[in-house]
Write a structure and sequence with these properties.
There is one protein chain. By secondary structure, the protein is of the alpha+beta class. A 3-stranded antiparallel sheet has the order 1-2-3, with no helix packed on it. The chain is globular and about 45 Å long.
Length: 146
């Protein structure tokens, strides 16, 4: 089921040359040279990123914002939570390539049970990346609180 949204912000980017090319946002705020990792049969050029780098940074930032949003609803501060997002790409059983994501949320200033609740609510109800990947990408969590 496709959910419609009320647009708030739209960002456009253009990639040329695929995974061995260049990608840049229309506003020129992000401009990156891309490479295919050696593990995927590419040159693995130093100083270049992969689409998985970009996905990991975007998901980590979005999820961190979602956790903080949920925490504020419960009158707690999560701005110091460290969110690490690891994105893995590999072959799927059905063919082609797929992604898997592991997200670690750490804030030892918040009780473990509270942090787990904030992470669960952020994933189930708030984060746009979590909504986009649901039922299509395996997402695992590690939560480290006090």
């Amino acid at each position: 089921m496709l959910s419609t949204i009320k647009p708030l912000v739209t960002v456009a980017a253009t990639a040329t040359g695929g995974r061995n090319g260049h990608s840049e946002t229309a506003d020129h705020l992000i401009s990156v040279d891309l490479t295919v990792p050696k593990a995927m049969g590419g040159p693995g050029l130093p100083g270049r990123v992969t689409p998985e780098h970009l996905f990991a940074t975007g998901y980590a930032a979005c999820f961190g914002g979602a956790v903080d949003f949920v925490a504020r609803k419960h009158r707690q501060d999560e701005t110091k939570a460290a969110v690490t997002c690891a994105v893995t790409i590999g072959p799927r059983e059905a063919g082609g390539l797929g992604l898997a994501v592991k997200i670690k949320v750490e804030n030892k200033a918040v009780a473990q049970h509270d942090l787990e609740r904030f992470v669960r609510e952020a994933h189930e109800q708030i984060c746009a990346y979590s909504h986009a990947t649901r039922d299509n990408v395996a997402v695992e969590f590690e939560v480290v609180g006090a």
